[in-house]
């Protein structure tokens, strides 16, 4: 236990970087995901095709490979803004298709009858979207979107293997120093991760309950 | 969905959207060509030395060496081996977890729930590292253990959802004909839940295959590691080439498996799962029903 208490500043430093990665790449993935999702449901065939190919390729590439590309190949190609930024780019790119899929399924999940009804009472395209479709889609999208962010929280640990000092990196460092108390260190680091993932999960469950009432 | 949102386009709008589509296609193609050319252009590094472009033959000549392909193949096989072993354990654990999670006994249900929450909220990579350190297994078994526990938890959760989504009557009917609660779970509820959740389970196995690459971090000699060790051996000149080849192999494996998953999902889906498929399944022993029936009754009466 004393290994944990002694190294608490190290863990907190790592936790701060984990949260930073989560927030920055989460925002980035949200923006990129919205763009991809918009492309995928757009009437322009070439945009749709591009977004589909992008989604398929990125979703089937292991995260380790994406981050490996960012940490080793990009600097080799003389693009090196530091490992934190590189890991952030990698996580953003990796997460964006999952965000896009969550958004798309939400919009597709709104029953067609809703749009038809809105159109038939004479609402315009903008009114249909902003008063009928989007309010329902946004509610339906929130739980799967939170699940994507929970996965992202856990995925930030892979960045720790590629020179970013976050929780996983902190765990590696501390276990190197204190090999005798591995189990206590594991539980401490896991607790930090669970703090984020479980609280996000609780929010998701809560939102889901509210949506279920509304539907 | 989108077609309902606006009026059907007239000839002018169709023409306009077609032109727009072609223009964006050209823009995307131009962007890709630019990217390929930019990667292929010779580069001047900081110390003034000129490096050949990335498509230069000097960066790709290692691939004529058969030993390189053999090493890559070994790496791919190692990846598949880890995925295969972990998949088997993950399925077994998933079944166990789902039974524990829906158990009627509080003493089984609550601990299982706690363990599942703990495992699902933790990064696989962290689990791998600590299994490696605590149990000092080799990197192979550390990877297998972490992957099977994590994916087992997710499969277990899916199976639980499947069992919970069955009509209550299924369990009640099982109990009513005198099966024990465990037998009802095993022979009535579980087969239906499994069939219903098969697409999700297979999708999770694709994720498992992808996640084997995490074993790279704990030093397992898998596909990516074989690529990097060869980069170290042949020099960083080849790093991009090896990366691209490894990526291509991964993409092929994963896309094939995803495609297979989709085919299976469609096939099981079209059978309109649930009770009907169960009755369609051939009986274990094709016996005369008159012979089977008394035996079943006898078994029932033998039980307290």
TrEMBL record, chain A:
Membrane topology field: Multi-pass membrane protein
Segments passing through the bilayer: 20-39, 60-77, 148-170, 182-205
Domain named ABC transmembrane type-1: residues: 15-204
The keyword Heme appears for this protein: no
Entry annotated with the keyword DNA repair: no
Keywords: Amino-acid transport, Cell membrane, Membrane, Transmembrane, Transmembrane helix, Transport
Family annotation (PROSITE patterns): ABC_TM1
Cellular component, GO, one term: ATP-binding cassette (ABC) transporter complex
Domain of life: Bacteria
Chief location of this protein within or outside the cell: membrane
Gene Ontology MF terms in the entry: transmembrane transporter activity
Compartment annotation: Cell membrane
One GO term of the biological process aspect: amino acid transport
InterPro entries: AA_ABC_transptr_permease_3TM (IPR010065), ArtM/GltK/GlnP/TcyL/YhdX-like (IPR043429), MetI-like (IPR000515), MetI-like_sf (IPR035906)
Record family assignment: Belongs to the binding-protein-dependent transport system permease family. HisMQ subfamily.
Protein name stated in the entry: Amino acid ABC transporter permease
Automatic annotation (TrEMBL), chain B:
Any one GO molecular function term: transmembrane transporter activity
Entry membrane topology: Multi-pass membrane protein
Keywords: Cell membrane, Membrane, Transmembrane, Transmembrane helix, Transport
GO cellular component: ATP-binding cassette (ABC) transporter complex
Entry superkingdom: Bacteria
Family classification: Belongs to the binding-protein-dependent transport system permease family.
PANTHER family: AMINO ACID ABC TRANSPORTER PERMEASE (PTHR30614:SF21), MEMBRANE COMPONENT OF AMINO ACID ABC TRANSPORTER (PTHR30614)
NCBIfam families associated with the record: HEQRo_perm_3TM (TIGR01726)
The protein's name: Amino acid ABC transporter permease
Biological source species: Cryobacterium cryoconiti
Upper lineage: Bacteria, Bacillati, Actinomycetota, Actinomycetes, Micrococcales
